[in-house]
Specification:
The complex is a heterodimer of chains A (248) and B (244).
Chain A lengths: L20 H33 L5 H15 L3 H15 L1 H9 L2 H30 L3 H9 L4 H16 L1 H14 L11 H12 L2 H30 L13
Helix pairs in contact in A: 1-2, 1-5, 1-9, 2-5, 3-5, 5-7, 5-8, 6-7, 8-10, 9-10
Chain B lengths: L3 E10 L2 E11 L4 E5 L6 H8 L7 E6 L2 E2 L7 H6 L1 E4 L11 H11 L5 H14 L15 H13 L5 E5 L7 H16 L4 E4 L3 H7 L2 E6 L2 E7 H6 L4 H10 L3
Parallel strand pairs in B: 3-8, 3-9, 6-7, 7-8
Antiparallel strand pairs in B: 1-2, 1-4, 4-5, 9-10
Classes of the chains: A mainly alpha (248), B alpha/beta (244).
């Protein structure tokens, strides 16, 4: 392949003047991180609640949790992104009003974090449910026998162990979420992939632009991985090899 | 008034009846051993006392409160009945002292200092004070079970339930747990124990209940039971487990 790499392109000024192309990528990175962090917080919170609901005794919460998971898991992520940006606001007049009057980027950001957060929440809910169900039934009974309420049993006994068990799958979910944030470019949010493509189109340096974007994604994903590994070590329970062991 | 009273308790899993019209009682300060072949419903019976297992017919009254009554505050009732499980069920992510403190603080509303003092006193009693900062996974089965007993006692229970407390233990650890239970019995604790340890029953039980296929077949004083059990099934059971 005959290609003249032009790494200097990042230090050229953009046509708008005053800024450099590398700054464009950095601003894209900023939105990627912002979308990922907020969506992750939504996904973890909602996922923990919905996953817990699926393990409760009552029929209604189990059914609700089940419906939630199936709804968000069975619609393609790209379609969900369009639904949140173009369709749902039509049914919520105050939201619609806000979206047409605010800066477009805020409307895009809101749609993107809701879409990614809720989509990922369904997947995390499944992991939380699996984590809780993998605990011995006696743990729940022991909590109840001591007089803990259902909420207290979950808060102090079941969820702390369940979350420890599911850290590895949560790590890959976190990395998926970061990578999925690139879908937000389809509704015009100028995140990292959007900016890389823009840079390529302005300068025809597609190779350089996407090489840079790829490296940045790898670095973010690996950092997330390392952070989760650190958390896993920090919360490891001394003397416990297999999770939920009964002392055998 | 008996501490625990069973009135015609019946329970089904689907169409299978696990408890058939069980009637008996445990007086204050009494030690009652429940034995019988596996699958006879003894664990289920004991779990009905603090409503860990629901039952469909009959009534259980604990300290004047009906367990099945919708108006009964179950967490509050349960907090007054200590329970020890076959597989210990200590909370693996908490240290020994935290295991003892949790319900004292969250359910009884004790301050951490008061709870810790109580916990340390009980750990001393079961010979586990040196292990207070350890995690359950770092202890042997016998040690974990002694901690579990202390955890139940920390709630100042009016009665203690034991659900096969030594069945999951290696033989050399059984006695350290039984010793704690014997001491507890001598102190006058009301106890209901599902166990196959007939030596324990002979030593401290006041009454022995023998169950088979969900029924209370024999409900006798210790001397009657070990002397001349009335039912053939109890005789057969005893001859089998006392052979060696």
């Amino acid at each position: 392949m005959n290609y003249n790499w032009n790494w200097g392109v990042f230090f050229q000024e953009t046509p708008d003047g005053g800024t450099f192309y590398w700054e464009m990528l950095v601003s894209g990175l900023g939105w990627t991180l912002a979308v990922s962090v907020v969506a992750w917080l939504i996904a973890m919170t909602v996922g923990a609640v919905v996953g817990t609901m699926r393990t409760l005794d009552g029929k209604a919460p189990v059914l609700f949790g089940h419906a939630w998971v199936e709804l968000f898991r069975n619609i393609p992520l790209l379609v969900q992104m369009f639904l949140w940006y173009f369709v749902i606001p039509e049914f919520v007049p105050p939201l619609k009003h806000w979206m047409v009057n605010t800066e477009p980027v805020f409307a895009q950001f809101l749609s993107a974090v809701l879409c990614l957060g809720l989509f990922t929440s369904a997947r995390i809910a499944e992991q939380v449910r699996a984590g809780i169900q993998s605990l011995p039934r006696g743990q729940r009974l022991a909590g109840s026998a001591l007089g803990l309420t259902t909420w207290q049993s979950y808060r102090h006994v079941l969820l702390p162990m369940a979350f420890r068990i599911i850290i590895p799958p949560l790590t890959s979910e976190t990395m998926n979420l970061i990578k999925n944030s690139s879908i937000a470019l389809t509704i015009g949010l100028a995140e990292l992939t959007f900016r890389a493509r823009e840079l390529g189109e302005y300068t025809f340096s597609f190779f350089e632009a996407f090489t840079a974007a790829t490296l940045v994604y790898v670095v973010i994903a690996m950092s997330a991985n390392r952070v989760m590994a650190h958390v896993e070590r920090r919360v490891a329970v001394p003397g416990l090899i297999a999770a939920g062991g009964g002392g055998h | 008034m008996p501490m625990i009273e069973f009135k015609s308790v019946s329970k089904w899993y689907g169409s299978f009846q696990v408890l058939k019209d069980c009637t008996t009682k445990v007086e204050k300060g009494e030690v009652v051993v429940v034995c019988g072949p596996s699958g006879s419903g003894k664990s289920t019976l004991i779990k009905c006392v603090n409503a860990l297992e629901p039952f469909q017919q009959g009534e259980i009254v604990v300290n004047g409160q009906s367990v099945g009554d919708k108006a009964t505050n179950l967490p509050q009732l349960r907090s007054k009945i200590g329970m020890v499980f076959q597989h210990f069920e200590l909370f693996p992510h908490m240290t020994v002292i935290e295991n003892l403190n949790l319900a004292q603080v969250k359910v009884l509303g004790r301050g951490t200092e008061e709870a810790t003092e109580k916990s340390r006193m009980l750990l001393k009693r079961v010979g586990m004070i040196d292990h207070a900062p350890k995690f359950p996974g770092q202890l042997s089965g016998g040690q974990q079970q002694r901690v579990a007993i202390a955890r139940g006692l920390a709630m100042d229970p009016i009665a203690m339930l034991f659900d096969e407390p030594t069945s999951a233990l290696d033989p050399e650890m059984i006695n350290e747990v039984l010793d704690v239970m014997v001491e507890l019995a001598h102190e006058g604790m009301t106890m209901m124990c599902v166990t196959h340890e007939m030596g324990f029953a002979r030593k401290v039980a006041h009454r022995v209940i023998f169950m088979d296929r969900g029924e209370i077949v024999e409900d006798a004083t210790k001397d009657e039971f070990f002397g001349t059990p009335r039912s053939e099934r109890a005789q057969l059971f005893l001859s089998k487990i006392l052979q060696h």
